[in-house]
Amino acid sequence: MSDLRETIIRTSLDLFDQNGFHGVTVKQIVQASNTSKGGFYHHFQSKDELLFVIHDTFITYVLKEAQAANVTHSSPIPKVQAIIQSFVHVFDLYKPHISVFYQESLYLKPEYEERIKGKRDEFKRMIFDVIQEGQKLGYFRKELPLEITGMAILGMVNWIYKWYRRDGTYTIDQIAEVFTDLVLHFLLPGKQDSEYFHHMLKVPFFYESE
User: Fold this and answer.
1) What is the DSSP letter of 25?
2) Per-residue pLDDT reduced to its tens digit, 88-131
3) Domain ranges of the chain
4) Sign, Cα dihedral of 37, 108, 152, 75
5) Contacts for 171-178: CB closer than 8 Å, 24+ residues apart
6) Which among 9, 36, 100, 126 is least surrounded, fewest beta carbons within 10 Å?
7) Are 40 and 29 in contact (CB under 8 A)?
8) What percent of the chain lies above the pLDDT cut of 90?
9) Is 138 left (phi over 0), alpha (psi -120 to 50) or beta?
Protein backbone atom coordinates (compact mmCIF):
# COMPACT_ATOMS: atom_id res chain seq x y z
CA MET A 1 0.00 0.00 0.00
CA SER A 2 1.41 3.39 -1.01
CA ASP A 3 2.13 6.05 1.60
CA LEU A 4 -0.42 8.45 0.06
CA ARG A 5 -3.14 5.79 -0.04
CA GLU A 6 -2.49 4.95 3.60
CA THR A 7 -2.52 8.66 4.50
CA ILE A 8 -5.87 9.16 2.77
CA ILE A 9 -7.37 6.17 4.59
CA ARG A 10 -6.01 7.27 7.97
CA THR A 11 -7.22 10.84 7.45
CA SER A 12 -10.68 9.77 6.30
CA LEU A 13 -11.02 7.49 9.33
CA ASP A 14 -10.57 10.49 11.61
CA LEU A 15 -12.94 12.67 9.57
CA PHE A 16 -15.67 10.01 9.27
CA ASP A 17 -15.41 9.27 12.98
CA GLN A 18 -15.81 12.95 13.87
CA ASN A 19 -18.35 14.07 11.28
CA GLY A 20 -20.00 10.99 9.80
CA PHE A 21 -19.73 9.72 6.22
CA HIS A 22 -22.14 12.27 4.73
CA GLY A 23 -20.60 15.07 6.77
CA VAL A 24 -17.28 14.76 4.95
CA THR A 25 -16.50 15.71 1.37
CA VAL A 26 -13.72 14.51 -0.90
CA LYS A 27 -12.41 18.09 -0.83
CA GLN A 28 -12.07 17.94 2.96
CA ILE A 29 -10.29 14.58 2.76
CA VAL A 30 -7.94 15.96 0.10
CA GLN A 31 -7.13 19.05 2.15
CA ALA A 32 -6.61 17.14 5.39
CA SER A 33 -4.42 14.59 3.57
CA ASN A 34 -2.32 17.37 2.03
CA THR A 35 -2.84 15.96 -1.45
CA SER A 36 -4.82 16.82 -4.59
CA LYS A 37 -8.05 15.53 -6.08
CA GLY A 38 -5.91 13.82 -8.69
CA GLY A 39 -4.02 12.07 -5.88
CA PHE A 40 -7.27 10.96 -4.28
CA TYR A 41 -8.86 9.66 -7.48
CA HIS A 42 -5.65 7.87 -8.44
CA HIS A 43 -6.25 5.54 -5.48
CA PHE A 44 -10.06 5.62 -5.07
CA GLN A 45 -12.80 5.92 -7.65
CA SER A 46 -15.08 7.64 -5.15
CA LYS A 47 -15.75 8.31 -1.48
CA ASP A 48 -17.99 5.23 -1.57
CA GLU A 49 -15.09 3.03 -2.64
CA LEU A 50 -12.98 4.52 0.14
CA LEU A 51 -15.64 3.53 2.68
CA PHE A 52 -15.65 0.02 1.20
CA VAL A 53 -11.85 -0.24 1.50
CA ILE A 54 -12.05 0.78 5.16
CA HIS A 55 -14.59 -2.00 5.79
CA ASP A 56 -12.82 -4.55 3.64
CA THR A 57 -9.40 -4.08 5.28
CA PHE A 58 -10.15 -5.60 8.67
CA ILE A 59 -12.60 -8.22 7.38
CA THR A 60 -9.98 -9.44 4.89
CA TYR A 61 -7.38 -9.59 7.65
CA VAL A 62 -9.43 -11.73 10.03
CA LEU A 63 -10.55 -14.02 7.19
CA LYS A 64 -6.97 -14.60 6.00
CA GLU A 65 -5.86 -15.34 9.57
CA ALA A 66 -8.65 -17.90 9.92
CA GLN A 67 -7.69 -19.49 6.60
CA ALA A 68 -4.05 -19.65 7.71
CA ALA A 69 -5.05 -21.32 11.00
CA ASN A 70 -7.04 -23.88 9.05
CA VAL A 71 -4.01 -24.76 6.93
CA THR A 72 -1.39 -24.60 9.69
CA HIS A 73 -3.15 -26.77 12.28
CA SER A 74 -4.56 -30.24 11.83
CA SER A 75 -6.46 -30.42 15.13
CA PRO A 76 -9.60 -28.33 15.75
CA ILE A 77 -8.33 -27.24 19.18
CA PRO A 78 -5.33 -25.18 18.01
CA LYS A 79 -7.41 -24.11 15.00
CA VAL A 80 -10.10 -22.52 17.13
CA GLN A 81 -7.47 -21.09 19.47
CA ALA A 82 -5.64 -19.36 16.59
CA ILE A 83 -8.90 -18.08 15.07
CA ILE A 84 -10.07 -16.56 18.37
CA GLN A 85 -6.67 -14.99 19.03
CA SER A 86 -6.54 -13.25 15.64
CA PHE A 87 -10.23 -12.33 15.82
CA VAL A 88 -9.74 -10.55 19.16
CA HIS A 89 -6.57 -8.80 18.00
CA VAL A 90 -8.36 -7.25 15.01
CA PHE A 91 -10.20 -4.94 17.44
CA ASP A 92 -6.85 -3.40 18.37
CA LEU A 93 -5.09 -3.53 14.99
CA TYR A 94 -8.02 -1.95 13.16
CA LYS A 95 -9.86 -0.12 15.93
CA PRO A 96 -10.55 3.06 13.87
CA HIS A 97 -11.70 1.00 10.87
CA ILE A 98 -14.14 -0.98 13.01
CA SER A 99 -15.45 2.16 14.69
CA VAL A 100 -16.25 3.69 11.30
CA PHE A 101 -17.72 0.36 10.14
CA TYR A 102 -20.30 0.27 12.92
CA GLN A 103 -21.14 3.95 12.47
CA GLU A 104 -21.28 4.12 8.69
CA SER A 105 -21.94 0.61 7.33
CA LEU A 106 -25.51 1.57 6.34
CA TYR A 107 -24.06 3.88 3.70
CA LEU A 108 -22.24 1.16 1.75
CA LYS A 109 -23.40 0.88 -1.85
CA PRO A 110 -25.21 -2.43 -2.54
CA GLU A 111 -22.40 -3.85 -4.67
CA TYR A 112 -19.85 -3.13 -1.93
CA GLU A 113 -22.16 -4.35 0.81
CA GLU A 114 -22.56 -7.67 -1.00
CA ARG A 115 -18.79 -8.16 -1.18
CA ILE A 116 -18.39 -7.39 2.53
CA LYS A 117 -21.26 -9.70 3.41
CA GLY A 118 -19.64 -12.47 1.40
CA LYS A 119 -16.45 -12.28 3.44
CA ARG A 120 -18.32 -12.04 6.73
CA ASP A 121 -20.38 -15.10 5.78
CA GLU A 122 -17.22 -17.00 4.84
CA PHE A 123 -15.64 -16.21 8.22
CA LYS A 124 -18.82 -17.30 9.99
CA ARG A 125 -18.77 -20.56 8.02
CA MET A 126 -15.16 -21.20 9.06
CA ILE A 127 -16.09 -20.77 12.74
CA PHE A 128 -18.98 -23.20 12.30
CA ASP A 129 -16.82 -25.67 10.37
CA VAL A 130 -14.09 -25.89 13.02
CA ILE A 131 -16.68 -26.40 15.77
CA GLN A 132 -18.41 -29.10 13.73
CA GLU A 133 -15.07 -30.76 12.99
CA GLY A 134 -14.20 -30.78 16.69
CA GLN A 135 -17.58 -32.29 17.56
CA LYS A 136 -17.30 -35.04 14.94
CA LEU A 137 -13.79 -35.98 16.09
CA GLY A 138 -14.82 -36.00 19.75
CA TYR A 139 -12.73 -33.02 20.84
CA PHE A 140 -15.69 -30.71 21.50
CA ARG A 141 -18.97 -31.30 23.33
CA LYS A 142 -21.39 -32.88 20.89
CA GLU A 143 -24.49 -31.76 22.81
CA LEU A 144 -23.81 -28.09 22.01
CA PRO A 145 -26.03 -26.90 19.11
CA LEU A 146 -23.70 -25.83 16.31
CA GLU A 147 -25.48 -22.62 15.30
CA ILE A 148 -25.98 -21.36 18.85
CA THR A 149 -22.36 -22.13 19.76
CA GLY A 150 -20.95 -20.44 16.66
CA MET A 151 -23.13 -17.36 17.03
CA ALA A 152 -22.24 -17.14 20.74
CA ILE A 153 -18.54 -16.99 19.85
CA LEU A 154 -19.10 -14.40 17.11
CA GLY A 155 -21.32 -12.26 19.34
CA MET A 156 -18.99 -12.44 22.33
CA VAL A 157 -15.93 -11.37 20.38
CA ASN A 158 -17.71 -8.77 18.23
CA TRP A 159 -18.92 -6.97 21.36
CA ILE A 160 -15.30 -6.08 22.17
CA TYR A 161 -15.64 -2.99 19.97
CA LYS A 162 -18.10 -1.52 22.50
CA TRP A 163 -15.80 -1.58 25.50
CA TYR A 164 -12.17 -2.12 24.48
CA ARG A 165 -9.80 0.81 25.06
CA ARG A 166 -6.12 0.76 24.24
CA ASP A 167 -5.42 2.61 27.49
CA GLY A 168 -7.71 0.33 29.49
CA THR A 169 -6.89 -2.00 32.36
CA TYR A 170 -6.12 -5.00 30.17
CA THR A 171 -3.99 -5.28 27.05
CA ILE A 172 -5.37 -6.85 23.89
CA ASP A 173 -3.07 -9.85 24.48
CA GLN A 174 -4.57 -10.41 27.93
CA ILE A 175 -8.09 -10.08 26.54
CA ALA A 176 -7.28 -12.56 23.77
CA GLU A 177 -6.02 -15.10 26.32
CA VAL A 178 -9.16 -14.78 28.44
CA PHE A 179 -11.46 -15.15 25.43
CA THR A 180 -9.51 -18.18 24.20
CA ASP A 181 -9.73 -19.67 27.69
CA LEU A 182 -13.49 -19.10 27.87
CA VAL A 183 -14.17 -20.58 24.44
CA LEU A 184 -12.03 -23.67 25.02
CA HIS A 185 -13.51 -24.29 28.44
CA PHE A 186 -17.08 -24.37 27.16
CA LEU A 187 -16.15 -26.38 24.04
CA LEU A 188 -14.06 -29.08 25.70
CA PRO A 189 -15.94 -32.04 27.18
CA GLY A 190 -14.95 -31.66 30.82
CA LYS A 191 -12.42 -30.56 33.39
CA GLN A 192 -10.29 -33.70 33.08
CA ASP A 193 -10.18 -33.54 29.28
CA SER A 194 -9.62 -29.77 29.38
CA GLU A 195 -6.57 -30.19 31.59
CA TYR A 196 -5.29 -32.97 29.35
CA PHE A 197 -5.48 -30.91 26.18
CA HIS A 198 -4.09 -27.90 27.99
CA HIS A 199 -1.05 -29.94 28.95
CA MET A 200 -0.59 -31.63 25.58
CA LEU A 201 -0.99 -28.50 23.45
CA LYS A 202 0.46 -26.02 25.95
CA VAL A 203 -2.56 -23.74 25.53
CA PRO A 204 -1.56 -20.39 27.13
CA PHE A 205 -4.49 -19.91 29.49
CA PHE A 206 -4.68 -16.49 31.12
CA TYR A 207 -5.94 -17.94 34.39
CA GLU A 208 -6.40 -21.40 35.84
CA SER A 209 -9.61 -22.80 37.23
CA GLU A 210 -9.54 -23.82 40.87
Assistant:
1) -
2) 999 999 998 998 888 888 888 999 999 999 999 999 999 999 99
3) 1-44, 46-201
4) negative
5) 172/88, 172/89, 172/91, 172/92, 174/206, 175/88, 176/84, 176/85, 176/88, 176/89, 177/204, 177/205, 177/206, 178/206, 178/207
6) 36
7) yes
8) 77
9) left
